[in-house]
Amino acid sequence: MHSINTEEMAEYITLNHGSGGRLTGELVREIFASRFGMNEPFTDSAIFNVAGGDIAFTTDSYVIDPIFFPGGDIGKLAVCGTVNDLAVAGAVPLYLSSSFIIEEGFPVEDLIKISESMAKEAEKAGVRIIAGDTKVVEKGKCDRIFITTTGAGIIREGCSHIGSAAGVKPGDRLIINGPVGNHSIAIMGARKQLSFTTQVLSDCASLVQLISKVLVSGVEVHFMRDLTRGGLATVLNELSEMTGMGIEVDENKIPVDEPVRGLCEMMGFDPLYLANEGKVLIVVPENGCSKIMAALRSDPLGEKAEIIGEITGKKNKMVVAKTVTGGTRVLDMHSGTQLPRIC
Amino acid sequence: MHSINTEEMAEYITLNHGSGGRLTGELVREIFASRFGMNEPFTDSAIFNVAGGDIAFTTDSYVIDPIFFPGGDIGKLAVCGTVNDLAVAGAVPLYLSSSFIIEEGFPVEDLIKISESMAKEAEKAGVRIIAGDTKVVEKGKCDRIFITTTGAGIIREGCSHIGSAAGVKPGDRLIINGPVGNHSIAIMGARKQLSFTTQVLSDCASLVQLISKVLVSGVEVHFMRDLTRGGLATVLNELSEMTGMGIEVDENKIPVDEPVRGLCEMMGFDPLYLANEGKVLIVVPENGCSKIMAALRSDPLGEKAEIIGEITGKKNKMVVAKTVTGGTRVLDMHSGTQLPRIC
After folding, report:
1. Which residues in A lie closer than 8 A to residue B55 (C-beta atoms)?
2. What pLDDT does B71 receive?
3. What is the rounded CA–CA span in Å between residue A164 and residue A283?
4. A58–B44: do the CB atoms touch at under 8 Å?
5. How far is B82 from chain A (nearest CA, A)?
6. Distance (Å) from the C-alpha of residue B307 to the closest C-alpha of chain A?
7. Angstrom distance (rounded) from CA B313 to CA B239
8. Which of A305, A336, A340, B282 has the highest CB neighbour count under 10 A?
């Protein structure tokens, strides 16, 4: 095995780092493999063994701008986003692949920071990053760095219906684990270099431990989905579409942190449509609510959990919110983008 | 289910197609899911069932320039490259995910062509594309389209050593399934708009059927690797590094098509370092060569297969080529890139 330390590495990524030759090998060995705990030889495919069963499989590309933001960075996001997708499907996340597209000239120091974030989050979530790829494109042909992570996990027994909402029934309650909108507002603030009186941090976090507590609570969970691009309102619309049932939420119950609410009012954003990276919607039978709330509130990521509404069973596939002023409004599927490159 | 046909879709991809909202749903439904045979509901994770065993898992990002080239396009490449990585690991490829990063303004017509290529190659290779993601970045923030595919397959019984070269022994023979360098030269030609007397096509192809014939031939295969970035010489160096053994190849035996050889001589390229997308190195015991050659030559992708050298067992980890003129030269690991964005 070579032993080249990072001091000897270039300060900036060059096209040669993507050539598949000696420099690619050095990059993989020195930056990624050492942090991700990958063993040589590096082969075309990683191999893992499973005892059999249902495997959840999910992929996401992360193109967030800026790549470092209050509360996280693109590496943390790339791991959390993908393990969260597995967790909400009722799976125990086990393995990740990560593929990097890097712009020529990208600072090696930043790549190291990003890799360290990934390694840290992977460890927290109990997953191993076992396969990867690195491509380098010419200056100006991508925006610094894009990361695609793909995850595999084993679906927990009795949980294969959770992602597809097959078990949702009229009267089921909707619960979220905390305030919405923080990720979007943190990114917007970082991008526009806004200064807030109270800093808004992205809620980017791995929900694996929290969801595990929910799934071992003894309550039958009928649906889960993380509230990413498009926010809570989009997930509610998708749920209504999937089940063919109406949904009612109470805006008074949906937690929104003060600085987020303030900025939304000022800039005309609706927090229900803003992206989150550490929030999950959980649908459970009414009689399971107290156990689920207790499970959520026992976790730092669920302290501000709230029951926000219910499945009405009306066959109108409509999502209706009781507003703060006592009226109602329809939460439609949005057709535009409030903020591009939010994840 | 909505039924919106492509006539109603925008002609160009907009940022809203990446918003996670209504237009993302339309894009996924109308362009990807319909061609990939994905069923609604589209959930965060796809689920597949396995009986248990060793799973091969591999990922690659494709950033090739140009995206349409003689012999293929980025979609064909993204499927073939990943299924080939699984096949050379001794796996039966089963499932793929595909994640798209698309530049605002990208023609929908081109996205359809690319999706059709992907669907066609997936069918040929016997894999299903079951999970995906779409991100759209602003004009100028990526170069048209990047695709990341991740694949999973079941390792065939008795084949888990193939990717790691654990079974390679001195005296083993090296076989390749046909001429090298065509992919690189085709891409270079397309990029520089060179005109050749005889057109050079990329060899981009799924090797799944070919490799299947090799693996059911009854011969114990000790190693396989596809000859992509860095070409044959790089794979030979990696094999020498992995096994700690020397390798000798005979340049006279390594097939190179005439137009490729001509262009290499003119431009000073070494075909042994050029990328391929439909070539595989197979290492087998000497007494298995005739069966393997018969299996290869029975397939259209193996008609020009040749035995090109052997494992010497010298402990010098050196790759030596007998040259056309009767001398020898060392094939070292290259440290530069002959052509960026070749895959």
Report:
1. 47-50, 55, 152
2. 97
3. 12
4. yes
5. 9
6. 23
7. 12
8. B282
Instruction: Give the model confidence (pLDDT) of A237-294 as tens digits.
Output: 999 999 999 999 999 999 999 999 999 998 889 999 999 999 999 999 999 999 999 9
Among B48, B242, B343, the residue with its CB nearest the CB of A55 is: B48
Chain A residues close to B23, C-beta within 8 Å: 335
Q: Which of B47, B136, B143 sits opposite A137 (nearest CB)?
A: B143
Residue pair B343/B62 in contact (Cβ under 8 Å)? The answer is: yes
**Domain boundaries, given as residue ranges, for chain A:** 15-155, 164-330
Token duo for residue A133: 């790829």
What does the pLDDT look like over B138-148, one tens digit per residue?
999 999 999 99
What does the pLDDT look like over B49-104, one tens digit per residue?
A: 988 899 999 999 999 999 999 999 999 999 999 999 999 999 999 999 999 999 99
CB distance A48–B60 less than 8 Å? Answer: no
Higher pLDDT, B338 or A129: A129
Residues 241..260 of A with a Cβ closer than 8 Å to B: which?
241-242
Contact B207, B258 (CB under 8 A): no
Q: Which of A18, A56, A138 sits opposite B45 (nearest CB)?
A: A56
ipTM of the complex: 0.95
Contact partners, residue B53, CB within 8 Å, separation at least 6: A49, A50, A52, B154, B155
Same fold, A15-155 and A164-330: no
Contact A192, A55 (CB under 8 A): no
Q: Rounded distance, CA B16 to CA A337, Å?
A: 5
Instruction: Quote the CA–CA distance of B342 and B322 in Å, as a whole number.
Output: 28
Give me the residue from A20, A63, A148 closest to B234, CB to CB. Answer: A20
The structure tokens 């976090």 sit at A205
C-alpha span between A197 and A213 (Å, rounded): 35
pLDDT of residue B293: 98
According to CATH, the topology of domain B164-330 is Phosphoribosyl-aminoimidazole Synthetase; Chain A, domain 2 (3.90.650)
Across the range A296-314, mean pLDDT stands at: 96
The beta strands (E) that lie in chain A are given as: 46-50, 53-62, 68-69, 72-73, 91-103, 128-137, 145-155, 173-176, 223-226, 247-250, 280-284, 306-311, 319-322, 328-330
Residue B86, H or E segment: helix B74-88
Looking at the complex, does the CB of residue A148 fall below 8 Å from at least one CB of chain B?
yes
Query: Which residue from A minimizes the CA distance to B226?
Result: A44
- Which CATH code is given to the segment(s) B15-155? 3.30.1330.10
Which of B22, B58, B208 would you mutate first to test chain A, the one with the most A CBs within 10 A?
A: B58
pTM: 0.95
Chain B residues lying within 8 Å of A60, measured CB to CB: 99, 133
Q: Could you say which of B25, B51, B135 has the minimum Cβ distance to residue A63? A: B135
CB B2 within 8 A of CB B29: yes
